[in-house]
Write a structure and sequence with these properties.
Elements lengths: L9 H6 L8 H23 L2 H17 L13 H18 L9 H14 L11 H7 L1 H11 L2 H18 L5 E3 L2 E4 L2 E4 L7 H17 L5 H31 L7 H7 L1 H26 L14
Helix pairs in contact: 2-3, 2-5, 3-6, 3-9, 4-5, 5-6, 5-7, 6-9, 7-9, 8-10, 9-10, 9-12, 10-11, 10-12, 11-12
Length: about 300
């Protein structure tokens, strides 16, 4: 009896990717993808886009940290780890369905799910092989802690002053009063949601993901990168606030498409992406300094 796939034209059959066999490795990877998707879905439905994108970056970082293990991955948990992993994973998935907007438990579910997946893959005494991936997932609750640890008022005032500084460099007259940036024809007030704490926390946590996934040996370089991360996040957000002040001064105030773009999640994510790009470029530049030089090609060899 021929299957439905066999009845398709040869040209069409060749374009359909083959379904991977149901090996323990493939089933574990499928389970891991399903767990990550459910967790990200909970973030998307209950949190801001900023936090959802951050959670996506963390799950991606966890995958990168175990990339060198994927080829020879062979799940073989011990009986105790199998039972504990199943119970923990079921509890995490059940709790995820109950998440509300203000539910801080959501931030803990990702590392718990990662631990459950690790126990379903390897004996308990060998969980260390997933150390870097689990540390990555711990950055999700660390994000929430860091958001609350950075004081709001001083950060808002600093953001306003730096935004006025960028405007002054560009030749625009402005006056900064506490958290307000005023220009001759309008201005903006830096509220808690706009002071860039989330962008700073995001870049700091992404810097840790980079250090885990692509280690740098130099202690000086690591210190420089960890110090540069919050400064890059702060600079990008203050530039965004300066752009908003220019929008208001130019008659594109609250409610206009231009203002909404730079004020709402889309524009904020754009500047967060710029911050991460700048940090990534700096990181790769320092990482390249530690790589050995490429061997000379045959055409560059001198004849003697």
């Amino acid at each position: 009896m021929t299957s439905l796939l066999d009845r398709l034209p040869e040209g069409l059959r060749s374009r359909i990717p083959a379904i991977p066999p149901a090996t323990p490795r493939n089933l574990w990877l499928l389970l891991a993808a399903a767990v990550a998707t459910q967790n990200l879905g909970a973030f998307q439905s209950s949190q801001s886009e900023h936090i959802t994108v951050y959670a996506l970056l963390v799950w991606g970082g966890a995958l990168i940290c175990m990339e060198d293990q994927l080829d020879d991955l062979d799940p073989d948990p011990d009986p105790l780890g199998l039972v504990l992993g199943i119970v923990l994973l079921l509890a995490v998935m059940a709790r995820t369905t109950l998440v509300l907007f203000s539910d801080g438990t959501l931030y803990l579910l990702a590392p718990l799910a990662g631990l459950a997946l690790a126990m379903l893959c390897t004996p308990l005494k060998q969980l260390g092989r997933f150390r870097d991936s689990l540390l990555c997932l711990l950055l999700i609750p660390a994000f929430g802690v860091l958001m609350k640890a950075i004081p709001e008022r001083p950060m808002s005032v600093l953001t306003a002053r730096l935004s006025g500084f960028w405007l002054s460099i560009l030749g625009f007259d402005n006056i900064v009063n506490d958290r307000t940036v005023m220009m001759p024809t309008g201005g903006v007030e830096v509220l808690p949601a706009c002071n860039g704490v989330d962008t700073i926390a995001q870049v700091i946590c992404v810097s840790i993901i980079f250090l885990l996934a692509f280690p740098i040996r130099s202690r000086l370089s690591r210190t420089l990168l960890l110090g540069a991360a919050p400064l890059i996040g702060l600079a990008c957000n203050t530039i965004r606030i300066a752009v908003l002040a220019l929008c208001v001064a130019g008659g594109q105030g609250k409610g206009t498409p231009m203002f909404r773009f730079f004020h709402d999640d889309l524009g904020s994510l754009l500047f967060s992406g710029i911050a991460i790009f700048v940090f990534g470029s700096l990181y790769m530049r320092l990482l390249e300094r530690e790589l050995p030089p490429l061997p000379a090609s045959g055409g560059d060899r001198e004849q003697i």
